[in-house]
Design brief:
This protein has 719 residues and is an all-beta fold. The chain has six domains: 5-171, Sandwich (Jelly Rolls), CATH 2.60.120; 188-290, Jelly Rolls (Sandwich); 306-408, Jelly Rolls; 424-526, Jelly Rolls (Sandwich), CATH 2.60.120.380; 542-642, Jelly Rolls (Sandwich), CATH 2.60.120; 654-714, Immunoglobulin-like (Sandwich). It is built from three helices and 51 strands. The relative contact order is 0.06.
Length: 719
């Protein structure tokens, strides 16, 4: 805080009196906010060596020394600057401008003298705000948002100083036409060209950010630069908008950025432009790229070319036309009945020509049937032969392009089935049924109609190498009930549906994106969940006791995610048999008791698609089983299990007495899970069970009467 003690004490009472009138102004700092102090400072008489302030020449804007004599200014988004002097200790510089309520105005000074700024209503007396030392050094820096559309006045004074200063002014730029573009998810997409491409933008406040997104091709060199008065800075990110790859501040002219980037990976990238240290205003965003020769060169004639192996899956090659005379040639084998599609992507204006294999007989060509300036050509050969393609740039402009090629599959025997009123009728049963279909073009759709019953679970899933999707509708074909893309194997769909009411329903299958090709359409229904539910995890299971008598439980896999878990106690070296019956394609897994360590597995060793597994434990312990439908198969199955091996009689029985207790011991029997202790007064008949144990010893009450004892091994747990 600057303080002039020479004038502070005599006017202390006056200052105290006016402080309530001029409350603190935004951004004014800690200096006493009083016009009286202002006036004192304007009329200060500081001593120099000769007792007077140094004087400088008046500037060309004089007279501008009071509220009636002023310099009229018109702030714009671009920085305005005027050279002024405070040529004496009493000199004042007044300004007038028209302010709008929706703009934020910025006034600041540069120079070596100490300047202060005061902002008034147009009457020149009602003070609204002021600032000192808010800028660099002892310069002022003031922001102002008008409370009303009106004229306002500004006064600049020197704080005990005379000399030259630069009066700088502008208003915060209006938002540009590309807003909102303030974060990595709201951006302006840009297409780069070999010539300079520019857009006019503004950084309309100190916090404004302008984001851009572009598709970068490996090996290309992209240049981005700005022009204008605003001090701009650029940041380059990966497409996530967080991984910073590069940045630049002042490598362009004046305070503008200039950044070059050569991607090593073809991908999308993002740019962020901001103002440095709160600068605001307009700037021009420029971009361009240079295209080097691609990896397919030389391919400049019908005898030097790239051979294409075309499939029903769209493939892409990145090429460049790196000089005006560059040509890219291709060759492929064409078959009658197949429709071949060739199209380009990116921003270069490209043309395609189709020839016989001689490279001179023109069969077809295209310029702009694709997106923007890209070509798109479709061709169905009439004979099995080799053909050639040539790609050039329109008017020999250089650049890169994506070369895309594929063929469409043949229509299947179920066509026409392309709309909700042209469909294939399905009779769904509990047995899985399959139809072979093709998505023969990117626009092809396959529609189906079936009657669904409440209480049944319907399953639809595909097999094949294409990325297929399924959509389930009400009978009208427009009310979407459910859909699925990739819940099946690989890129196949899998969808389950339990109708709430008996009615007709429709199904639509198409290819994701540009996928075309064949797929198997599978469909069936299953019964409701079985009585053993919940048994869907290692912690929710059905306990079973395999014995020498075959046992069977009736289960259902009522959805393609359904699992049936079981738990049993297995004896070391015993043979346990598990198999399934029915038409459902089932698989079985054997785990330790944790349900995580896999021990054995089977899929189709039983009849048809049923599993059949013999399991011999290496240790007496509990084990768990999981049954699951193969490839999404659902439906009913019989779960059969047994332990067919005979148990031997326990050997080496010993009996001992201790007062009133009796202890019997014997050798363990292979495969036994428990033992029953029986007693009788007759050695040949009348035995009754008096105890059971899972160990090889038993202790009971001593009977003073004559008793005969025997031990019976069992493959069942202790009751």
């Amino acid at each position: 805080m600057k303080t002039n003690l020479k004038f502070l004490l005599p006017l202390l009472f006056l200052i105290t009196a006016v402080i309530p009138v001029f409350a603190a102004f935004p951004g004014s700092g800690t200096r006493e906010q009083s016009r009286e102090i202002d006036l004192i400072r304007e009329n200060s008489e500081l001593s120099s060596e000769n007792g007077e302030l140094a004087r400088v020449d008046p500037d060309s804007y004089e007279p501008d020394d009071d509220a009636a004599d002023y310099t009229l200014i018109d702030p714009t988004p671009f920085l305005g600057a005027q050279n002024h002097t405070l040529h004496s200790g009493t000199d004042l510089d007044w300004y007038r401008f028209y302010g709008y309520t929706d703009r934020n105005y910025h006034f600041y000074s540069t120079g070596t003298i100490d300047t202060d700024i005061y902002l008034y209503l147009d009457d020149g007396t009602t003070l609204l705000n002021y600032n000192y030392d808010g800028g660099e050094g002892t310069n002022y820096d003031l922001y102002f948002t008008p409370p009303a559309n009106a004229y306002y006045k500004i006064k600049v004074v020197g704080y005990n100083a005379v000399g030259a200063y630069v009066f700088c002014y502008h208003h915060v730029a209006d938002p540009d036409a590309y807003e909102p573009d303030d974060d990595a998810s709201s951006y302006t997409p840009i297409a780069s060209y070999t010539f300079s491409y520019d857009q006019s933008h503004t950084l309309h406040n100190a916090a404004d950010q302008d984001w851009y997104r572009f598709e970068g091709i490996s090996g290309m060199t992209y240049s981005f630069w700005s022009t204008g008065h605003a001090d701009t800075k650029i940041f380059l990110y990966e497409d996530n908008g967080t991984t910073l790859l590069d940045e630049d501040d002042d490598d362009g002219e004046l305070n503008n950025y200039n950044l070059s980037f050569t991607p090593t990976v073809s991908a999308c990238y993002k740019l962020k432009v901001v103002a440095v240290t709160g600068w605001i205003g307009a700037y021009h965003f420029y971009s361009s790229y240079t295209a080097p020769a691609d990896s397919y060169e030389p391919d400049d004639s019908s005898s030097q070319l790239t051979y294409l192996s075309i499939s029903n899956i769209n493939q892409t090659q990145d090429h460049t036309l790196h000089v005006n005379s560059d040509q890219d040639w291709f060759r492929f084998q064409g078959y009658p009945g197949a429709c071949y599609t060739f199209y380009s992507t990116y921003s270069s204006d490209t043309i395609i020509y189709l020839y016989d294999d001689n490279g001179t007989t023109l069969l077809a060509w295209d310029d702009e049937s694709g997106d923007l300036n890209n070509f798109k050509l479709e061709f169905t050969p009439t004979v099995n032969a080799l053909y050639k393609l040539k790609v050039v740039a329109y008017e020999n402009v250089t650049g890169y392009y994506g070369f895309n090629y594929s063929y469409n599959a043949y229509p299947d025997s179920f066509e026409p089935d392309n709309t909700a009123i042209e469909y294939t009728t399905l009779t769904v049963t509990g047995n899985n049924q399959t139809q072979n279909h093709t998505i023969h073009s990117a626009e092809d759709q396959d529609w189906f109609l079936f009657y669904g019953y409440a209480g049944l679970a319907y399953a639809f899933y595909s097999h094949g190498s294409i990325d297929s999707r399924i959509f389930l509708y009400a009978e009208n074909g427009t009310t979407l009930l459910d859909w699925d893309d990739d819940d099946g194997d690989d890129l196949n769909y899998s969808l389950q549906f339990a109708p709430a009411a008996d009615n007709f329903y429709k199904v639509k299958v198409d290819g994701y994106g540009d996928w075309v090709g064949g797929y198997a359409f599978n469909y069936l229904f299953s019964v409701a969940a079985d009585a053993y539910e919940p048994d869907n995890s290692a912690s929710e299971y059905t306990a079973i006791t395999p014995t020498s008598t075959l046992q069977t439980q009736n289960h259902t896999l009522h959805s393609n995610t359904e699992q049936d878990w079981f738990r049993f106690q297995g004896a070391a070296n015993r043979v346990y048999t598990f198999y399934s019956t029915g038409i459902t394609d089932t698989r079985i897994w054997v785990y330790d008791d944790s349900g995580s360590s896999l021990i054995a597995y089977d899929d189709d060793s039983g009849d048809g698609d049923n599993f059949a597994l013999d399991f011999i434990p290496t240790a007496t312990a509990y084990y768990k089983l999981k049954v699951f439908g193969s490839a999404g198969s659902i439906g009913a199955y019989g779960f059969c299990y047994a332990n067919f091996a005979d148990l031997t009689a326990p050997a080496n029985l010993t009996i001992s007495f201790a007062e009133t207790t009796l202890t019997i011991q014997w050798n363990a029997v292979a495969g036994a899970v428990s033992y029953q202790i029986e007693a009788s007064a007759d050695p040949f008949t009348g035995f009754a069970v008096i105890g059971a144990t899972g160990s090889t010893s038993w202790t009971g009450a001593y009977d003073p009467d004559r008793r005969f004892y025997r031990i019976r091994a069992s493959d069942s747990p202790v009751p």
